[in-house]
Each structure stands twice: as structure tokens, then as C-alpha cells.
Specification:
The chain has eight helices and eight strands; from the N terminus they run H-H-H-E-E-E-H-E-H-E-E-H-E-H-E-H. The protein has a six-stranded mixed beta sheet with strand order 1-2-4-3-5-8, sandwiched between helices. Strands 6-7 form a two-stranded parallel sheet. The chain is globular, with a radius of gyration of 18 Å.
Length: 291
């Protein structure tokens, strides 16, 4: 074996043995800002195509397997080409944990969706950084979902296009059978972070996440005020997956920033990203001990 081959092998082994990296809320906010800089990003738009290329380019050096899930959605405005982006960080157990979040924005005047669509995009990009080169027992999938937003009016058929499509696809190809848990990230950048205690999420996973947050000192950000949320976790729940939504729906005074032109990058705080990232990383470790 040549000296060059030995050096390459040593570098590979070293990369595979690196300890887990700490999630950075500051970097997650930076990634969010880059996504928001593309402007409004509705499904099928030129801006979301640019963001897709940006995400895929960022993942090239992250040590993951990247695939796309392309489909045409039947919307009230006609057929729209959509694309889910999937990054797989392989483990050895044969089981998987999935972290999802949408990267599209709603069709609204001057709406750049810094929190609603942007924060989940940036969060997942930073999570990819944190996972790069680390060892973990389970496969970890990071999924940027297209088409979460309703094209016109939220309904069973006009919403959650990407998650509905991917859940059905993974059910058919057997991927879902290996998924032990799914965490959906949405609107987590609010400066005044109070995540919803979603009663539609899987109870065991909800308790695990909230108990972990309590243990880490984030009880204020993870209150136990019951709510029911329709979001990208629902199609997976309906397929039998233990899934949870992490979302703060009260955005701005009297919720005045949500789905308005006020949802801009200055409304976000790196601390909120840090809290959610720290809890999710701790939950990933807890899930490794569950068969």
C-alpha cells in the first residue's frame, strides 16, 4: 500500500471518528439570512430554484448522500414542479431519525419569510455542518421540504405538498419502516421563543423532547401549553411514524408578523436557533438508545 493511500485512509478514519460538533445558532442565522436574500421563494419560482442550487451546493462537502425527490403537484393554480431535498448521514443500526423543515414561502406581497420558511432552511444547513464527519448509530436524514404553504387557502389538498409526497414515497419504498422518529422544524427563529406543545404529535416523542429541554434549562422556551398544529409532520404521523412538530406560531405582538411583510431577518435571534439546535442534538443522542 502506497504512502499516499495510507494517508488518505488515515484521513478518512479520522473524519469518521470526530466527536459531535456543537450546533451554532449564530451560523444558523447566517444561513437563514443567505436564504432570505434570494427574496420571496414560492414553490416553482426562479428564487426557489436558486435556493435549491445553493442548498445542494452547500451539501457537497458535508459527507452526506444527497438525493432529490422531484414531483409535479396539482395545485389550485395548476401543476407546479416541486422538489424535496434529502441529505442522508449514514449510521450502522439500520434505523433512521429524520429532521424535516420547509424551504418554500407563501405567495404574498413582499413576503420573504425569514422565520416562516427561512429559519427551517438555515437550521437544517447548520445541522448538516454539525453532523459532518461525526459518528452516530442511526442514519440521520435532513429533509428540506417543498410546498408546505397553501397556494391559495389551507386545506387537506392545498398544503403540505412535499411532505405528503415524500411520506407516500417512503411508505412505498420501505424507508418509513426504518424511521424511529421524525422531528419537523418550523418557525423557530422568533426572538420571543415559545414552542407549541402539539397534541397532534406523537406523545412519547413529545415527552422526550420536552423533558430533554427541561433538563437542559430551556423550560421557558418549551412550555407545556397544549395546542394542535397542522404541519409537515402530519403526513408522516398518518403513515405510522412517531413524529413531532417544533414550531412557535405566536410570532410578533398579537402574531402580527406571521404571513406578512414584517417577517424579516431582523425579527430573528441566534439564541432561539441555539436553544432548538442544542435540544435537538441532545434528543438525537437519547434516540440512539431506543431500538
Amino acid at each position: 500500500m502506497s504512502r499516499q493511500t495510507l494517508l488518505c485512509l488515515a484521513a478518512t478514519l479520522l473524519a469518521c471518528s470526530l466527536p459531535a460538533k456543537e450546533f451554532s445558532g449564530a451560523r444558523a442565522l447566517e444561513y437563514t439570512g443567505k436564504a432570505v436574500a434570494f427574496g420571496p421563494r414560492p414553490s416553482g419560482s426562479a428564487a426557489i430554484h436558486q435556493l435549491q442550487a445553493h442548498i445542494l451546493g452547500s451539501l457537497k462537502s458535508r459527507g452526506c448522500t444527497v438525493t432529490t425527490d422531484d414531483f409535479t403537484a396539482a395545485t389550485p393554480n395548476g401543476p407546479v414542479a416541486m422538489r424535496n431535498l434529502v441529505a442522508k448521514f449514514p449510521g450502522k443500526s439500520g434505523r433512521a431519525v429524520v429532521i424535516t423543515g420547509h424551504y418554500d414561502t407563501k405567495i404574498l406581497p413582499h413576503f420573504v419569510g425569514a422565520n416562516d420558511g427561512g429559519s427551517s432552511t438555515g437550521f437544517l444547513l447548520e445541522m448538516a455542518d454539525a453532523l459532518q464527519g461525526t459518528m452516530h448509530r442511526d442514519d440521520i436524514y435532513l429533509v428540506w421540504l417543498d410546498g408546505e404553504e397553501a397556494v391559495r387557502q389551507w386545506s387537506e389538498t392545498d398544503s403540505l405538498y412535499g411532505s405528503r409526497h415524500l411520506a407516500a414515497k417512503w411508505s412505498q419504498d420501505g424507508t418509513l419502516a426504518h424511521v424511529k422518529a421524525l422531528l419537523n422544524i418550523d418557525m423557530i427563529g422568533d426572538k420571543d421563543l415559545h414552542l407549541e406543545f402539539d397534541m397532534d404529535s406523537a406523545q412519547s416523542l413529545r415527552e422526550l423532547v420536552w423533558n430533554t429541554a427541561d433538563r437542559l434549562g430551556f423550560t421557558a422556551e418549551f412550555p407545556r401549553q397544549a395546542n394542535q398544529i397542522g404541519d409537515d409532520h402530519i403526513p408522516f404521523l398518518r403513515m405510522g411514524v412517531k413524529a413531532l412538530d417544533l414550531i412557535d406560531l405566536n410570532y410578533g405582538p398579537s402574531n402580527t408578523y406571521w404571513h406578512t411583510a414584517k417577517d424579516t431577518i431582523d425579527k430573528l435571534d441566534p439564541h432561539s436557533f441555539q436553544v432548538v439546535g442544542t435540544v435537538v442534538q441532545a434528543v438525537l443522542k437519547e434516540l440512539e438508545g431506543i431500538q
